[in-house]
Amino acid sequence: MQICFRALDATMEEICVEIQEQKGDLSTLPYLKQGWVNFCKALLVESTWHYEGHIPTLEDYLDNGWISSSGSLFSFHVIHGMTNNITIENLDLCKNCHEIIYHTSIIIRLCNDQGTSTAELERGDVASSILCYMQQENISEDVAREYIENIILDSWKKINYHFNILSTSHQKIVKHVINGARMAHVMYPSGDGFGVQDGETRDQILLNLVEPIT
């Protein structure tokens, strides 16, 4: 574990030095490090739930799950890496876009759950949002999946609203954050397209990046 964390720490410092050299005098290292700290803490919470056999309420699950989805961590890297000039104002874009980052992360988490919940249950992973809501409300899996789908749709409405009130310059950056939510719909419609890459994920990558256009 120490070797892994040292490698992560060194990589983050290298990324932040490159951003600082290209974008401005302020270092993004404290911001991105905190993002990784929050991400690891969220994973630790899920690990604790798993080993204790605890199934949280859906609310508790999502309070932690939007961070463990890596959506917020991904968003911080996108915003800091694509901002033209690293200033305090631009670094605060992460705070100003909190709602978009949150709902993008929720979509990533819930699309993941929709695609991987069955396989995770079979191998004994931490409870997904679907199982949490099934136990909480004592309902069937189909009803729980429909409820989760409604949360995803509602998150998209909120993303669209908050995106449209941003300035044009901020929209150009934040649209790449929102692409994370779009990719979640691409990766998980038929199962775990991230963890198992030999199905539709492989075909789409070959079609878009490898095979020639005819």
Provide structural commentary:
- There is one protein chain.
- The chain starts with a helix and ends with a helix.
- 78% of the residues lie in helices and 0% in strands.
- Helix 2 packs antiparallel against helix 4 (71-82) and helix 8 (129-137) packs across helix 9 (141-164).
- The chain contains eleven helices and no strands.
- The protein is mainly alpha-helical.
Outline:
The protein is an all-alpha fold and 214 residues long. It has helices at residues 2-23, 29-52, 58-68, 71-82, 88-91, 93-96, 98-123, 129-137, 141-164, 168-187, 200-210.
Keywords, separated by commas or semicolons:
single chain, 214 residues, mainly alpha, globular
Largest sheet: none
What's the pLDDT, averaged over the residues? 85
Write down the oligomeric state: single chain
- Radius of gyration, in Å, reads 19 Å
The percent range for strand residues is under 5%
Number of strands: 0
Please give the share of residues in helix. over 70%
Task: Report the span from N to C terminus.
Answer: 47 Å
CA-based shape = globular
Tally the helices. Answer: 11
pLDDT under 50 segments (min length 5)? none
* Helix-strand string: HHHHHHHHHHH
The class by helix and strand makeup works out as mainly alpha
